[in-house]
C-alpha cells in the first residue's frame, strides 16, 4: 500500500502477503538451513538413512541427498533453491549432492553472523564469490592425475562414492563392475575422452543376495519371447533389429470393405494371411534366427515365426535397440523391403532365462566384445533400489574422474586444506570482503565436522587433529571415521573426482548468494475462482460479508426471515 496526499492506494491484490528487509532475509535463511539440516545426518560412511512415504504409500529408504530432497516436496521458495542446487550438482557430476546442500546451509549461517555485525548482503555475496574462485584454484593445485588405465584408482573412486550404502561392503564386486561398465562406454572425440552413460545397461531383479549380482559380457533385455513355441535358446544367432512392425500394411487412405457372405470373408482372411506370410518371408529370407522389433508383431506372424524356428521379441525400447546394434554390429532397419543379411548382427548365444519373478533375455558373445551389462540382485525391493542409487553415484563419479582426469583425497581433507588456505588468503585482503572470505573458510569446516558427528566422534578433537596434520604432515590427511583418527586418505584409497568438489562449491556459493540478495518476498494469493469454482473477481469483492441493509450478518447466511419462511421441500 502506498499513500498520496493521505489517500491510501492499493498496489497488490487483497490478501497478498509481503515480507521485506531483515525479516524476509532471515526467513529465507531459516527455510534454506532447515532443508540443509534435513540431509546433514546422511553425510559420510556412517550417515543415517531416511525413510519417506509418499502419498501413495510407497516407501523409500535412502541416504542419497538428492533423492531425499526430491521426495520431500519442499514448498518454500528459498528452500527450493537449496533443492535446485542439489539437483544441479546431480545433473552435472552425479555425486556430492549432500555436500552441496550442507555447504549452502553453512554459508547462509555464516552470512547471518556477518549481517548481525552490520555487513551488507552484497558485500557478503562479493566476498563469497571471490572465496569460491580461490577455493577452486586451491583444489586444482591439490589434484593428482588419473587416466582410464589406472583401474585401481578408479575402483577406489567407486568405493568412495558408495560409502554408507550396501554396495561398499568388504568383498563386494560392485565397484569393479562399475569400472567395467564405464570403460565399456568410453568415446574419444578430438583426442578427448568422454563417457556416454546412456550406453550402460543395468537391469535389477529382486531375489538372491547382493553378492549374486553379475556382470554380463553382452546385452540384457527385459523382455521374453512373444510365442511359447519359439525356442528359448539360439546359438550362433543372426539378429535382425527392426524399427518397424511385423504385420500387414494398412492402406494409406481410409478404406471401407463390405462383406456380405461367408465366402467373401474367407477370401478376405486368406488375403490377409497371405500378406502377413509375405512379410514374415522377408525376415526368413534374410537368414535371421532372432528378431528384436521396436514395434508390434501380429499374432499370425508370431505363429509363422515360431514355425520357422525364429526367436522374436517385440516392443523393444529404442535405446535398447541401439545398444543391441552397438554390441552385435547390426543395423536398425526401418523397412523389411531393404532387410539384407549384411544388416544382421551376430552373437554366440541369445537365451531367455527365468530371473527372480520374471524373465530376462541375455545376448552374449557379441561381435563387440567390450560391451557389458550388469544384473543387480537384492533380497528386497528396497535393497535393490538402494543398490541402484549407489551404483548410479559410483558410475557418475568414475565417469567424472575419467573425463576430468583429476582426483583429490576425501574424508574431509580438501575442506580442511581450504579452511587453512582461505584463512591465510583472507588475511591478505582489505575491506569488509575480508570478513566474508574468512566466514567462507569457516564454512568449509562443516564437512569434516559433520563426518565426525555422524560417526559419534568429537568434532572439536577431530578438527584440531586435522589442522595439525595438514600443517605438519600433508594436505591429503583426512578423517578415518571407522578408526576414529586422522590418516592419509590417498594411501587409504578414499578418493573423489576433482569436479565433484569444485561443482559442489560453485553450486553452494551460487545458491547462498542468490538467497542473500533477496530482501523482498511477495506471495500472491490465488483467486478463489481457481479453487472453489467461483468466477474470477467474485472472491475478492469487498463488503460482501456485511452489506448495509442486510442485517450486517457475515456471509449473508443470517438474513432474517429468509430461512424460517421458506415452504417445506425448498430446503
The major pleated sheet works out as: 7 strands, mixed
Cα-to-Cα separation, first versus last residue: 44 Å
Structural class: alpha+beta
CATH architectural designation of the largest domain = Orthogonal Bundle
Instruction: Indicate the low-confidence ranges by residue numbers.
Output: 529-571
Helical residues, percent: 40-55%
CATH superfamily of the largest domain: GroEL-like equatorial domain
What overall form do the CA principal axes indicate? Answer: elongated
The CATH topology of the largest domain is GROEL, domain 1
Tell me, rounded to a whole number, the average pLDDT.
84
Total count of strands: 23
Question: What's the quick description here?
Answer:
The chain is α+β, with helices and mostly antiparallel strands and 571 residues long. It folds into three domains: 243 residues, Orthogonal Bundle (GROEL, domain 1); 92 residues, GROEL, domain 2 (2-Layer Sandwich); 143 residues, GroEL, CATH 3.50.7.10.
